[in-house]
Design goal:
7-stranded parallel sheet; alpha/beta; single chain; 7 strands; 2 domains; about 250 residues; Rossmann fold
Length: about 250
């Protein structure tokens, strides 16, 4: 048997229109899963879906925002049995307490925390009934250690880690697993845009990479590889974990 195959499994990946979510959706499909590509951007979501299909995989685009609790509940009624749920959709904010408003906190909480809750609330009950499934929440290095000038973001990512552990503890003997991935800095389109806007992109890259012992940022494909491991049956003994893919950032913390 070829390891890490996902043949016969159905997967949902949120925020799959670009970056980490796109890489995860494409890799899960390449390994045999049928993937529902969820994104609020119709152009980006369709592009990921078409890329998967072009490579011979199975994908269906779903235009949906993770803050839309009603829309998610409706989706859960019409989709087939879901085996893999990847809660990747998330947003960020730069700022300490003085540069963060209550609105900023509410906006990040709605997507980063409530969005994860909404998807779990809609799809996990059926997983529990069937006694199988894997839920993978994309948290952050900022979910296990504080990151400077990321007050709202760090707060929400700590909540994602806590939510993941609580789910694993509450449903430890059901056959459904709950884990999170905590990336460090990753070369996503958002990061690349920030680098391009910098007066010195090379220095900016070095500055952003300096916290990671590897001396570079991760590629989205490297986060996707971690997601594949947690999705596959080979990780059957892994639940309630935070898989650090941070280039060693947290090693000395």
């Amino acid at each position: 048997m070829t390891p890490f195959r996902l043949d016969g499994k159905n997967a949902i990946v949120t925020g799959a229109g670009s970056g980490i979510g796109q890489a995860i959706a494409e890799l899960l499909a390449a390994q045999g899963a049928a993937v529902w590509v969820v994104d609020r951007d119709p152009t980006a979501g369709a592009a990921t879906t078409n890329a998967i299909r072009g490579a011979g995989g199975r994908a269906t685009f779903v235009l949906l925002d993770v803050v839309d609790e009603g829309g998610i509940a409706e989706l859960a009624v019409v989709l087939p049995e879901i085996d893999l749920l990847v809660n990747n959709a998330g947003i960020g904010h730069v700022g300490n307490l003085l540069a963060t408003t209550g609105g900023d906190v509410d906006r990040l909480y709605a997507v980063n925390v409530r969005g994860v809750f909404n998807l779990c609330k809609a799809f996990v009950p059926a997983m529990l009934e069937r006694g199988r499934g894997s839920v993978i929440n994309i948290a952050s290095i900022g979910g296990v250690i504080a990151v400077r000038d990321r007050l709202a973001y760090t707060t929400t990512k700590f909540a994602v880690v806590g939510l993941t552990k609580a789910l694993a503890l509450d449903h430890s003997s059901t056959g459904v697993r709950f884990n999170c991935i905590c990336p460090g800095r990753v070369e996503t389109p958002w990061v690349k845009q920030r680098l391009a806007e910098s007066p010195d992109p090379v220095q900016a890259y070095q500055d952003m990479s300096s916290t990671q012992l590897t001396g570079r940022m991760a590629r989205p494909s490297e986060i996707a590889a971690a997601a594949l491991y947690l999705a596959a049956d080979e990780s059957a003994m892994v639940t309630g974990s935070c898989l650090m893919v941070d280039g060693g950032w947290s090693a000395g913390k």
